[in-house]
Design a protein that fits this description.
Radius of gyration: 17 Å
Order of helices and strands: HHHHH
Distance between the termini: 18 Å
Number of strands: 0
Oligomer: single chain
Amino acid sequence: MLIALLIVHGLFAVALLGAITHQTAATWLPARKQAGSFGGRFRAVGAAGYTNAIVALYACTFVLGAIIYPEFRMSIRGVLEELEVPAAMGAFELKEHFAVIGLAALPAYWSLWRQPLAEEHGRARKALTSILAFIIWWNFLVGHVVNNFRGFGA
């Protein structure tokens, strides 16, 4: 059952990663004309349209992570200590903290992206979206790498 939850957690994380990446690109580099290239089409999405999906995916990913966390944490800590990789343990500790910071930022994020978009909040939207993108990318990469340590060490 835990493996199935880990897979679903990973699928939600990939969907969240795609949504936040599209929104961040569209926020920082909006397409100014008809997009003809791949990069132009990637940026041409309606950034505000991703907000509810990002909030829902973040919450679902967080809850699934919280469910599988105790067992994963207990099994991975010993492996990382045996392999003597304190950097991986530290990165995972940061992942935990970043996940909670991102969860706490979701109400402000959602409020800033509510329609109609207030022009005076443009910089705050960019900043908070970028912070969330960093947190999501960090957590995805660290979770993936640390899970691989467990796979090789178990």
